[in-house]
Design brief:
Blueprint (H helix, E strand, L loop, with lengths): L1 H11 L1 H13 L12 H19 L6 H13 L3 H23 L4 H45 L3 E4 L2 E7 L4 H18 L3 E8 L5 H16 L3 E5 L3 H10 L8 E2 L2 H11 L2 E4 L8 H4 L7 E4 L4 E3 L1
Parallel strand pairs: 2-3, 3-4, 4-5
Antiparallel strand pairs: 1-2, 6-7, 7-8
Helix pairs in contact: 2-5, 3-4, 4-6, 5-6, 7-8
């Protein structure tokens, strides 16, 4: 019965609570990262936020209003701190307003008022935080998928030769994706040689080296071979200190050197023509220029 009476007092004095809430929430703009938001948009959202709170206090029973509001501010990119600060300020302002109207200072009575107001505010906090959590999980999931798609591309550069450039840290999950993409790409592109470029990998430790070794062995079982390129001096020293045996895996310091070895393995070579001048037909591939020959088939590609 008391909770119902306190609810009535809060609703009857909603204008006073609103004015005090707006005054305090505006002082927190620099704290909850809403300082850059335009005044008009900020005022409109504040009013909508209060409408959502009082809608819940009236006990209409519908959570759709809260969900619609949370969806809107999430899409706008508003921080969660705006929600938590707003509800904490509302709790304080409402308790103070009720105490002022009842002119009571008894400790037990104050505790009862705080408990009642908390029972109105907590369900709103719970639902809004849950909405934010679901939204963040979806965003993180989509970003993880996007990063995976970009993390281990297999690029065909010539018949039977492909390159996999690796950038960033390699953990167990990413190593598994690299392995799957590598094996699938070897079959799809009918690759004989795969150049694994680790120029952009900042650290090669025991785990990374082990994953790279596993990947090259799996490629070998498919009848293709790997060349590890981008071996910097510090990486070479690390591999030696770790005692990792890469004796069966060709390694080169640069992608260019690795590509030349790949041409040699696939019985191809680059031949420079005597005629150094090239007209537009040469550039478009209709004239003379550098040639790549296949020594096995005696076919010549211009």
């Amino acid at each position: 019965m008391m909770n119902k009476d306190l609810r009535s007092i809060a609703i009857e004095n909603s204008d006073e609570i609103t004015q005090e809430w707006l005054k305090e929430i505006n002082q927190l703009k620099s704290v909850n990262y809403t300082e850059e938001i335009s005044a008009e948009l900020y005022d409109n959202n504040n009013q909508e936020f209060l409408n959502v709170i009082f809608h819940s206090i009236r006990g209409n029973g519908s959570t759709k209003v809260i969900k619609d509001f949370s969806d809107r501010i999430i899409q706008l990119g508003w921080p969660l701190s705006y929600i938590t600060d707003g509800l904490l300020v509302f709790r304080k302002v409402t308790v103070n307003t009720i105490l002022t109207k009842l002119e009571q200072s008894d400790g037990g009575f104050v505790s009862e008022i705080i408990s009642s107001v908390d029972s109105w505010v907590e369900p709103i906090i719970r639902q809004l935080v849950n909405e934010y959590s679901v939204s963040w999980e979806q965003v993180v999931s989509l970003q993880r998928i996007a990063l995976q798609e970009l993390s281990a591309p297999l690029i065909p550069v010539m018949d039977n030769i492909t390159i996999m450039p690796l950038i960033g840290t390699i953990d167990t999950e990413r190593a598994k994706f690299i392995m799957e993409n590598l094996l699938e790409g070897v079959m799809r592109h009918n690759a004989e040689v795969v150049l694994i470029d680790i120029t952009g990998v900042p650290v090669v430790d025991t785990m990374v080296a082990h994953h790279l070794f596993q990947a090259t062995e799996a490629v070998r079982l498919l009848g293709a071979s790997c060349i590890l390129v981008g071996i910097r001096p510090e990486i070479a020293q690390t591999i030696v200190n770790l005692g990792i045996n890469f004796s069966n895996l060709p390694t080169k310091s640069t992608l260019k050197k690795g590509f030349m070895l790949a041409l040699e393995i696939t019985n191809k070579s680059i031949i420079e023509m005597d005629n150094k001048s090239q007209n537009m037909d040469d550039l478009l591939g209709f004239g003379k220029g550098s040639e790549i020959t296949n020594e096995n088939s005696n076919l010549k590609t211009t």
